[in-house]
Design goal:
Helix content is 76%, strand content 0%. It contains 22 helices and no strands. α6 packs across α8 and α9 runs parallel beside α13.
Length: 508
Amino acid sequence: MAIKPREQWGTRLGFLLAAIGSAIGLGNIWRFPAEAYRNGGGAFLLPYLIALITAGLPLLILEYTIGRRFRKSPPAAFRKLARKAEFLGWWQVLICFVIATYYAVILAWAVRYVGFAFTEQWGDEPDAFLFGNFLQVGDTPGEFGGFVGGVFWPLLAVWVVTLGILALGVRRGIEWANKIFIPTLVVFFLILVVRALTLEGAEVGLDAFFTPDWSALRDGNVWVAAYGQIFFSLSIGFGIMITYASYLRRRSDLTGSAMVAGLSNSSFELLAGIGVFATLGFMTASTGVPLDELVTSGIGLAFVAFPTIISSMPAGAFFGVLFFVSLVIAGLSSLISIVQVIISAVMDRTGMSRVQAVVIVGGLTALTSLLLFPRTGGLYFLDASDRFINRYGIALASLIVLIVIGWVLRKLGEQQAEADATSAIMLGRWWKFCLAVITPVVLGIMLFDSLRQELESNYEEYSTGFLLAAGWGVAAGALVVAILLSLIPWRRNMDEDLAALHLDKRSS
């Protein structure tokens, strides 16, 4: 059987833009500003920076080393690390599958809101418009209800674009798309920020965002929030960076690339915070509504608070179009990376061609998304799935990965040598200490605190039965299916893997 060399990025810049595009997603725009405001304002930047140095960058480098060293998707890479660790890779693939199905839906909302922004179609009550007119949300969580055409058709378009880019491959598809997406996103967002800074009352919002509350640093929850923000904003923990790094050339600088990607992501988050709070300051000055009542995160900020502000500001339609186009670009670059994890794993596991994997597996992911979420009950399923797959999927999987690699297999030294062999910045003992001690401890605290909250009261007061099915069931199901997939024998033998590795070395 002829063995093709693994695809590679055309340039280091292409890889960096793809990695940055994966990291810069919807959460950067609507999660970071609210987290900073609620956790000490300007003082939050200190624990945030420490979290970046002690958890974000070390984890990013670790995933880069695993991907480049083994030249495989997460399941195959963990299998090479240790046969019994293969389930960790499949767990990450299943997590990506779940996230992709609902992440695309939020992206479809942003697509529709680009059109709504031209005429400010949400009117005087953006809240009622979003949940009533647009999403047509039903009254009972757990019931799928009928299809909502206004969500279904843009969702279909999102999947067509995403799968089309993936079908073109790493270099001609993902790399090419991100070379367009990321510069465009930065330009658009800079325009948004400049416009926001010129609004009357912008200084009110900026004062609230940057004024430090140093007493907050004595609160352990603030530090946990900082680590959580870093963790969930860098696209680490669910196989994306392992997959992307598997397409790197053998002599690529891993540590330097991680530094660039991590700092770029954090810089964009800070830029987003400035833009968001300058805009909220305008709203406070023009309406008299206290800033505390305006600060929110998630879909409430993007699809309720911002439309309200857009309707009350000069040239609001222009501002609105730029904002929602920025959301679409940020979300699309992230969605592409999430689905690529699934595609890559299936290609490595079955020997399918890229186009076959995109059509069959990508098509199945898209079909699941299209059948489950653009319904009157879809928002409830999206909310529960997102809550539990993030807290008890990504975070828990990452904790176990660190325990397995750092404490069970004791492979951190090997991975450090992999990074140091080609990187300008050498990793010291701090790197292994962070991954073996600091990050697992913080993840453990985060998970314990989350579990305590779940046991105290049902999330959003949903029924226990609904949470067991759409929340706990989804998170547990990803792990169970991952274990079952890891038990299936591989048909391709190790000789083929070694031959492919030899071709990869020659091509680099």
